[in-house]
Amino acid sequence: MRRITLAGDGLAEFTPVAPDQQVKLFFARDGGVPEVPDPPATLDDVGSWYQRYLAMPDERRPWLRTYSIRRHRPAAREVDVDFVLHGDGAHSGPAARWAASARPGDVVGLYGPSVSHLRTPGRHDWKLFAGDETALPAIGAWLESLGPDERAVVVAEVAGPAEEQRLESAADVTVVWRHRGSVAAGRSSALIDAVRSLDFQDGEPFAWVAGEASAVRAVRRHLVDERGLDRRSVAFAGYWRVDRTHDDASTAEELADHAEEAAAAG
Predict the structure, then answer these.
(1) Are residues 98 and 215 in the same domain?
(2) Looking at the 3D structure of the chain, how many domains does it have?
(3) pLDDT in tens, 46-55
(4) What is the pLDDT of residues 176-218, one digit of tens each?
(5) Which positions are tagged coiled coil (predicted)?
């Protein structure tokens, strides 16, 4: 992973909305300054704003990707964004390629922030965070927001020991790392196996699950169907898909997940 600090006067009005907040990042296709439509004036204008973005000619329309904010320093007008890199570059998308070669002075567009989930914690006794590398920025930010009287358990899947990160928190936190070794990202059962084998703490948990979409779905089903958690106590987000790109259409399962989350939020 590579941490990039984004800075500029445009972040003067950046207003945090949640520990697991995310932003839309825009990357110019020619490596220069991305051309981004003026931001929507209200939430009701988001749909038409996105249509204006899609209507841009292909050669001018910047790539659009969603990323979590790892840390925000308002006084310095800075945010940190962690990018997962791909060793050989064969499976790198435009964001990872940009991050791998980014230098001071490079420009991206930023729109946001927004929360990465549609369910917020109700009454609960402890938090469970589960995810792969792509979930670590949000998990790290959320842990740093917890107070000393709170409890949390983190189950994280990474390639190996070298990919483990130091996660800091004032809360009572237990971190369980699981390594997938030579198994390709998105093909491992390490995350769901670790959650299945986890001894739950006393009390009612609130679970937050993010990462590769099919792995997130498996963990969520386990928590609801086998552990008996209320669906409203499980926030989930598929950050990426092993067989599909960001630009590919949503699958039927993903559309059903989105509809359920929207209904719960409403």
Answers:
(1) no
(2) 2
(3) 888 889 999 9
(4) 999 999 999 999 999 999 999 999 999 999 999 999 999 999 9
(5) none
